[in-house]
Amino acid sequence: MKIHNFSAGPSILPESTIKNSAEAVLNFAGTGLSLLEVSHRSKEFVAVMDEATALFKELLDIPAGYEVVFVGGGASTQFCMVPYNFMKSKAAYLNTGTWANKALKEAKGFGEVVEVASSKDSIYNHIPKGYDIPSDADYFHITTNNTIYGTEIKKDLDVNVPLIADMSSDIFSRPVDISKYTLIYGGAQKNLAPAGVTFAIVKEDALGQVDRHIPTMLNYKTHIDGGSMFNTPPVFPVYSALQTLKWLKDMGGVAAMEKINIEKAAVLYDAIDSSRLFKAPVADLEDRSLMNICFIMNDEYKELEKDFFDFATARGMSGIKGHRSVGGFRASTYNAMPKSSIQALADAMKEFEAKH
Ligand code: PMP
């Protein structure tokens, strides 16, 4: 039976990423060595890092003046690297979910943090709008895709202060106007690679403006100057990231991917919206994520939740349980998720409904 991987992260990767990575574990670039035991300073791996960085820039059309770095620590380490490197005295945050809230809390140790708006009181079921950002904030931080709640800011915002975004769960899902951002970061374990590598797209001239001492490993400049090789980089996930980037280029790049993602998400949202049993907690179409599609049972069918979970699991659906903090269901439909798997889930929902 085919298993459809709807996991929120680590999550589905292109078949070619998994196959090429597996082959390199056995014999990396014809060296006769495993990718797992090769020096990061070998010419073969330096070529991987260079190609991954170049292709990353090419696919996102990253303009001059920006650098891409691959580091460890996950997006969670970025929550402190952001204020370390960019907060002089005051920063503004939009609270759209658990991860946004964690980033905001971390920043509080560095200066004044203004929460410009929050959707916490409505269990983060929408993206707040119509807020004011203090003009003296050193930056405004957003989380473009809220992995747990299934909301997404799908347009690049125009704001009055430097913009910083956590794009952990929607990077490479659509074209991004990088020039509108000072920093974009994310863990790679959704649209890019296995867990273990974190990316950051940094506007170089925005660095060096804070007075505090920045620990060497937490300073973006360290990793830019070192070409992501200041210390031992996560060799395996960087190799896998390169395989995913090559796949993405073959697929036609991020503009083509956005089209496909819109079509894929429509299949599932249509199944939810036309259903008697299920409903989407995120009502506003504009706010609905194309990457994490949340759905819950309608109140009168609440007791069927476990039955549906078992029914779907028996049909090969894996990872559809909602995050433990919200319950219900969540189907993560990242770039590598084929439309056929989403159709299979929509069909299972219809089949289940016909029985009830
Ligand atoms: N931000 C977002 C939007 C996430 O989805 C996650 C993890 N799922 C994180 C940050 C934390 O990432 P990490 O586990 O790499 O620290």
From TrEMBL:
One GO molecular-function entry: O-phospho-L-serine:2-oxoglutarate aminotransferase activity
Annotated metabolic or biological route of this protein: Cofactor biosynthesis; pyridoxine 5'-phosphate biosynthesis; pyridoxine 5'-phosphate from D-erythrose 4-phosphate: step 3/5; Amino-acid biosynthesis; L-serine biosynthesis; L-serine from 3-phospho-D-glycerate: step 2/3
Pfam families: Aminotran_5 (PF00266)
Cofactor(s) of this protein: pyridoxal 5'-phosphate
Aminotransferase class V domain span: 3-345
The reaction(s) this protein catalyses: O-phospho-L-serine + 2-oxoglutarate = 3-phosphooxypyruvate + L-glutamate; 4-(phosphooxy)-L-threonine + 2-oxoglutarate = (R)-3-hydroxy-2-oxo-4-phosphooxybutanoate + L-glutamate
Subcellular location: Cytoplasm
Top-level division of the source organism's lineage: Bacteria
Keywords for the protein's UniProt record, in alphabetical order: Amino-acid biosynthesis, Aminotransferase, Cytoplasm, Pyridoxal phosphate, Pyridoxine biosynthesis, Serine biosynthesis, Transferase
Cofactor note: Binds 1 pyridoxal phosphate per subunit.
UniProt binding sites for pyridoxal 5'-phosphate: 75-76, 99, 147, 166, 189, 231-232
Binding site for L-glutamate: 41
UniProt modified residues of type N6-(pyridoxal phosphate)lysine: 190
Protein's UniProt keywords contain Amino-acid biosynthesis: yes
Top EC class, one word: transferase
PANTHER family reported in the protein's UniProt record: PHOSPHOSERINE AMINOTRANSFERASE (PTHR43247)
Physiological role: Catalyzes the reversible conversion of 3-phosphohydroxypyruvate to phosphoserine and of 3-hydroxy-2-oxo-4-phosphonooxybutanoate to phosphohydroxythreonine.
Matching HAMAP family: SerC_aminotrans_5
Record-stated family: Belongs to the class-V pyridoxal-phosphate-dependent aminotransferase family. SerC subfamily.
Assembly information from the UniProt record: Homodimer.
Protein name stated in the entry: Phosphoserine aminotransferase
Originating species: Carboxylicivirga marina
Gene name of this polypeptide: serC
